[in-house]
Amino acid sequence: MAKTVDVNVQDAALNDIKNNANKLVVLSAQATNFTEANSTYMLANTALASGDFTLAAGDTSGRKVTVAAKSGISVSVSGTAVQIGVIDTTNSRVKAQTTCTSQAINTGGTVDVPSYKVLEVQNPT
Amino acid sequence: MPERKEKALPKHIQAGQAVLARHAGKKDTIEFAETVLHGKMAFRQGEVVRFEDPSVAAYFDIAFNGTEFSTKEPTRTVGEDEINFDPEDPRQNETIDPLTRITGRAGIESGTTVHQHLSGGVGSGGKALEPHDADSGSEA
Q: Cβ B140–A71 below 8 Å, yes or no?
């Protein structure tokens, strides 16, 4: 007998990200709260819309949401990018953040963030 | 050695004109540098005085044979050191190129490749980040 979960349950989590995250941020450290993600550690940022997110079948199992690539993001603070997050500035929430390969960036330059999987909610085991 | 006697200079030698050197036609007989203050200078028979001619960036020699001057057209560009000349101490036999008295280099010499040091990119093309996909397992 297998363990199952309604796909709507999985998509509910993913849609919360899709419908509320309105900013992609490049961070110099892991943010533990909204202020750190939106200000303290933020090196670069760009606006997001729900259309930037795509739900699909998970790579392993379940469901996933990916965010579209963003290029030419102006660097506002020089530093080393180690985290990328998607945040909700309306409700002051850090919806999800992930690690990235460490990269030094400088003001006056730009960064490109490729499309990546924000979250995959796998089937229960 | 006969004494120098003051003689009126040819008219084309102007007051204020720099005297680069005096010599008797040999490199090692420089005595002193001076500036023509008026239309006369003291000369010794057989002496040659080298005058700067800034209008054509050259110099010319005037030889005094005891009674008259021989004037020569500018023959060389200032900088060729047939006569070793040191404006700081003209008695020293040190080579100087008058055209390069002002030394100083630009911070970057021609031919130097300036490497862009701004990471993150300037203009077209930004620094590419590599985010890591996030998975969330669930357990029932």
A: no
Tokens of B75: 């023959």
Order of strands, sheet of A110-113, starting from the edge strand that comes earlier in the sequence: A70-74, A110-113, B127-128
* pLDDT tens-digit map of A15-32: 999 999 999 999 999 999
A27 forms bridges with which residues in the sheet?
Answer: A42, A83
**Distances B93 to B20, B81, B86, B97 between C-alpha atoms, Å:** 13, 11, 7, 13
Inter-chain residue contact A72 with B129, CB threshold 8 Å: no
- Model confidence over B61-97: pLDDT tens digits? 777 777 777 765 444 444 444 444 444 544 444 444 4
- This complex has an ipTM of 0.84
pTM for the whole structure: 0.53
Cα–Cα distance, B70 to B50 (Å, whole number): 12
- On the CB side of B44, CA atoms within 13 Å amount to 11
Nearest CA in chain A to B117: A106
Please give the single-letter amino acid code of residue B115. H
User: Using the beta-carbon criterion (under 8 Å), do A104 and B119 form an inter-chain contact?
Assistant: yes
Chain B: closest CA distance from residue A24 (Å): 12
Burial label, B124 (beta-carbon count in 10 A; 0-12, 13-18, 19+)? exposed
